[in-house]
Design goal:
- This protein is an alpha+beta fold and 106 residues long.
- It has a single domain, classed as Glutaredoxin.
- 39% of the residues lie in helices and 22% in strands.
- The chain contains five helices and six strands.
- A two-stranded parallel sheet has the order 1-2.
- Strand 5 and strand 6 form a beta hairpin.
- The protein is globular, with a radius of gyration of 14 Å.
- The chain starts with a helix and ends with a helix.
Length: 106
């Protein structure tokens, strides 16, 4: 999430709303969000309901939920999905920003 915080303004400039889902309960999630002062939306998903809708993997041998990034256009259509194979498999912001630029130009 530090990577998203670092470039948050670049996402805002492209009219991209960042929403982060996490496995914690609502109270733990809210406390973390306040402590870290994260500038984007964080939603708890402790029962993995949203995770299942998007096909995000849970692998207990690799510390739980694998990373997943989904770019959804303004019509609600998922235009890009990246499922990470481990906790470090996250596309760089530059790639996500370029994809956002492409979607916004259509």
């Amino acid at each position: 999430m530090a990577q998203l915080r670092h470039d948050h303004q670049k996402f805002v400039e492209r009219d991209v709303q960042i929403i982060v889902l996490g496995p914690e309960n609502a109270q733990a999630f809210a406390e973390y969000w306040q402590k870290e002062e994260l500038p984007f939306i964080g939603l708890p998903d402790p029962k993995a309901g949203t995770l299942k809708l998007y096909g995000q993997e849970v692998n207990l041998f690799k510390l739980g939920r694998m990373p997943a990034q989904v770019l959804i256009d303004k019509n609600g259509i998922a235009r890009y999905v990246h499922y990470g194979h481990d906790m470090t498999d996250i596309p760089p912001n530059e790639e996500l920003l370029a994809l956002a630029d492409e979607l916004n130009s259509q």
